[in-house]
What we know:
This protein is 34% helix and 27% strand. The strands form four sheets. Strands 18, 19, 20, 21, 22, 23, 24, 25, 26, 27 and 28 form an eleven-stranded mixed sheet that branches. It is elongated. The chain starts with a strand and ends with a strand.
Amino acid sequence: MPDLIAQGADFRKRWRRPLPAGEDVVLGRGEDVVLGRGEESWEIAWDKKISHQHATVQWQGDHLQVTKYQQAANPIFYQGDEQLSFEVPIGGHFVIGETTFSVADGQLKATLHQAEPVVERSFSADDLQKLRFGDPDQRIEMISQLPDIISRAANDSELFIRMINLLLSGIPRGSGAAIVSCGGNVEASDGISISVMHWDYRGSQQGSFSPSQRLIQTSVRQNKSVLQIWKESGSSPQATFTATEGIDWAFCVPIDSPACPGWALYVAGEFSSDESSTSSSSKHSGLLEDDIKFTELAASTLGNLRQLRALEQAQAHFRQFFPTVVLDALRQRNPDDVLAPQETEVAVMFCDLHGFARESEQWADDLPRLLERTSGALGVMTRHLLASGGVVGDFHGDAVMGFWGWPLRQDDRIDRACTTAHNIHCELIDEAASGGSILGGFQAGFGIAAGKVVAGKIGSADQVKVTVFGPVVNMAARLESMTRTFGVSILLDEASDDRLRGMATRQQETSSGIQLPVVQLDKSDYFLRRVGLVLPYGMQTPAHVSQLVRCDQVDADRLGQYESLLPLLSAADWPALADRLAPLADDDPVAHFLASHIRETSPLPDDGPGTIRLRSK
């Protein structure tokens, strides 16, 4: 695609932009672009005779279609006449106010066919730092614009345009400038192609600008600024020459930054007639030292600010996994120290979607829709997890594992885990009740366990992730799996049960005389009831398991009746327990499971007094 060049009355008021390609590849049509002074347009801020939205332009294969907006105040002139809609070929131009718009060939490649320079000098960053500007005020003023140039650029394309404009404005003797790249391959051979990412040329001989591939590679490979001068003072045009007329010198300045691998700034131009009469090559070189130093400062600023932008983008990426407290810790302390594996006390939560297998079968013919629904549910989980100060430890298919208490100590880590489970649970319930098409049909199970783990950067020499490791993690996963077995939503280990009982706001008396603790989580009341001593499948040690259930979803008396039978469970009086559970089975899923378990497991294994041994995950 060709480029559109806007040139104001002042030579510094200028930009060159590639006309965007469109979807109609066959016809070569591009996208519509607005010319004007507004933020949503290709801005020509220097010309007050151009309206907020003045015209649209679109490349149409072999010409540029220009159409004036009816509300635009000033006319558009093409070939000397006022026009409302017209076609401009490559090489043509039109005028709005004091600005000329030209359509130019956008192709530019670095060339290998460059004459041997008369002068070649290299400058290290230290060398340039020792040089003093001949006009420091003007140069510093130009450099001070760089942060604003970069911050206002929405993307790399806009950034390149602004950077080239700055270079040509700050180097009056420069005819052309380019941002080039060796593709990160600084050891490239002479045959490798140099990528010209953006360029502009304002010299009198259009088409004469062609960056020297050899100069660029030398500069990037040495990581030094390199100057080459082809036209020596007093020589005839035939004696020494560049690959094209109109260029007397060029220099290349590498951008030494991990965010700009193999990048460099290339500037070329002509000496004025007064400068051409200078008697020595060293004076010619000295004339350009200010320009090289200016370009090196621009390159350094560009590299540093682009690296900062990359870090901000990385931080935004990390924000998907880490809450603000973790990011603060990474900023304030050495990340290696923060992320080093260490023993610590945490609360771990596993959250898994119930009914996912059924959903997968239902949407087997529309996998994008299934992905949308699953991503929506996982988004609910991670959003609430991060909002409560938790860390996303891992994804397991349709499940999320999160933890609290690292890298900063959180004394309320169990409270946070339970509140997160509550918030996720409530949002899924509310979405299902409202008939939402994204999350409707999904329910979730939660397993919460607390204790000592190893937390931090864990993995192999080839790949690591920030997570937690230890029996507590396995217990939380087993508890989540048990929610399907027991037909409930939230199950806790003994440490979590103890913590919640200590924060109970009241005790509710039930008809069986059992006092059920009531815990408030984010303004909702929950009952805490003991399920029993359970031996998870594949584990050797039984664990005390409790259920957390919203008060408005259950009959407190039924919960109390079940808990009143726990002494029979502890005594392993299975016949009596089965008889007493039968009346509760229809309304209490835990009672229903245990009654079925006793009936279907005969004889019951001797795993210790009153242990419920699960036969599967």
